[in-house]
Amino acid sequence: MAVKTWPMHSPGVSRSSVAPFFTPRNGTRIDRRAFLSALGGMLALGAFGPGDALAAKHVTLEKEDAAEGEGATAAPSGKLVRIDRGTDGVTLTFALANAPFPLLGAPYEDRSVLVFVPHHYRLPKDRRLDALIHFHGHNNTAEGAVHEHALREQLAESKQNAILIAPQGPVRAADSNGGKLEHKGGLRRMTDELARELAKPSLKRILGPSATTAAKSFGTVCLSAHSGGYRVAAACLMQGEVEVTEVYLFDALYGAGPSFRAWLKAGGGKRRHHKLISTYATPPVRANNLVLMAELRADGFNVLHELKPGELSRKALTDGRAIFIASPLDHGGVTHRHNNLRDCLYASQLHRHQKSDWFDNKNAARQIDSR
Description:
Blueprint: E1 3-5, E2 21-22, E3 30-31, H1 32-44, H2 53-57, H3 59-68, E4 80-86, E5 89-95, E6 112-118, E7 128-135, H4 142-148, H5 151-158, E8 163-167, H6 186-198, H7 204-207, E9 217-226, H8 230-239, E10 244-250, H9 257-266, E11 275-280, H10 283-298, E12 303-306, H11 314-319, E13 322-326, H12 340-346
Parallel strand pairs: 7-8, 7-9, 9-10, 10-11, 11-13, 12-13
Antiparallel strand pairs: 1-4, 2-3, 4-5, 5-6, 6-8
């Protein structure tokens, strides 16, 4: 997906690409290069205390929003640090206090949380944000997973009226540590902070008709995890203090089976029930899926098990609560090469306001589209 980076000083954007001046409404022209130079001097002299470097880095964006925001009564907090515009929507990168990291005792400092807002998104009348929260796996980053696994494209193609959230976990490390999201209330604190940021008036000029301005809270929340992301997903279910409706695991059931089982058993509501779709591709994950399937059958669940691609119908994928899918793909491709996430979203309890032909012939075997 082609992206256009917001003109600001951020990783991947050279100083030379920053416009030389910006003009606040009082008509004063401020030299950006002089401002950045002064800022660098302040940093060198220790004007900012420990932990303030990230905030200082984004002062420029605060100044721009204060000067150019449409109807904004106050400058944004500076937590929005990057804007990428693409064919399917806009990706916002926030630096949040309640992101998984940094955390005392962990070697990770990146507090990024990526949010993708599709062009077709419209804030509902109840001002509640439906969302898919994705946890990346080992040896990757949130940005890498979003790009490599076509997460934005699959959400856009599903036509669901939801946003994608991708918190930064351990950066390119063989580590499943979920940081602050493994603490009691961690997911609630992150989503509460994010809701406040997404509700700010300054986002209206960035997102246009898809603006999340005036959002008050989150509505239907689904979690997805690839590989080692299973651990933080399970922790969020057990103590995140956010009601999660659906979970999608992509070759990710390396452990925490009892947590997923307990969560599934706890959500038997007729209007909004808990639903698990677990896709597996490698032997150790397959073994754990078979164990969980047997346990859920013993609990009285009607377990659906797809052994050949597309064997389950669209209706089965929509109505089922405990669904397991054997994939012929490799570990890295299981999330996207057969549009697995897209089909999970199509069949989800999220809210769609656009027409789709995905449910045509809904009782027939599901057609597999390769990406």
